[in-house]
Amino acid sequence: GDGGGWSVAADWHATSGMTNSLWHLVETTAAVAAATREPNLRERFHGDEYFIPIIDQLLGSRTGSTIKARRHVYKRAQEYMIEDGRLWKVGDKQSRRVPRVECIPSREGFNTALKAHMENGHWDVDITKLWLRDRYFWPHID
């Protein structure tokens, strides 16, 4: 049947040698550690409407004013990580040629692209875009 005719003995833990089943939880998650270690990450992306909610989500802050908005940010943030004071977009094998790329604020995108073009032998647009996409991500990189 359905298991309704039997139960576990009340003193089952006494025979198995278990003493206490208590867990001591200490909040030392990577997000909390990153929040104390990476204060200038938020400053670097200040005013960037795309990345700030993702950074806040990764650092453990509450984001979004509605449940739907919070769920959306949570889902988007799963593609990112914070390491060494930088925000990274993490790719999977199906969608990216490289395992991760550094995220930069949108306002830095043009200067980064111009610098890549100048320092890499004045490649044409398509080659420069490929080079940039293998190293960086920002919204509307195309």
From TrEMBL:
* Full protein name: Integrase zinc-binding domain-containing protein
Q: Which organism is it from?
A: Plicaturopsis crispa FD-325 SS-3
